[in-house]
Amino acid sequence: MHLPMGRTERGSAQGLERILGSALFSTLLLYTLINMTVASPKILHPQDNTVITKDGKSLQILCSAQTKYTRFYAIYWLVNKTFVEDAYPDGRVTEQSGAALAVNMTVKQTLNFTSLQPEDFRTTFTCVVVDPSGTDMRHFSLFPEDDGDIRLIVIRDDEEPKQERR
Fold this sequence. Notes:
Blueprint: H1 13-37, E1 42-45, E2 50-54, E3 59-66, E4 74-79, E5 82-83, H2 84-87, E6 93-101, E7 106-113, E8 125-131, E9 134-144, E10 149-155
Antiparallel strand pairs: 1-3, 2-10, 3-7, 4-5, 4-8, 6-7, 8-9, 9-10
């Protein structure tokens, strides 16, 4: 039997490459289809126009999100597009993780302020949740109200925060 040039025996590397390539393609296609059917993570709270606290007092902003993944997710806060520890090296503002609820995989991350300062009203806070199916994020800004309360404004995408009145 005469073999084509470059082949030394039946089932050589070229045939094996085709089989492995086909298997890899099938695996990637299956992975893509599975990920298309799994819902991306979704931030649930806080909602628009939530009144939180009064100026000068401590403040907690809870971010809760849903994910379908029990172990492979991350939820965190950004301050003007940087990590909280870098934005507040003095520790005046910190993050605190909440336990994941196994029923619907709600995950929580709290942004804790020991006291509010004027610069906090000129800052954009972003809650981010990431899992293998995607990413969701919301931008938040604090606006003082006439009565001294603070309103948290939720902004989608990369819009600039705008003050809203009741």
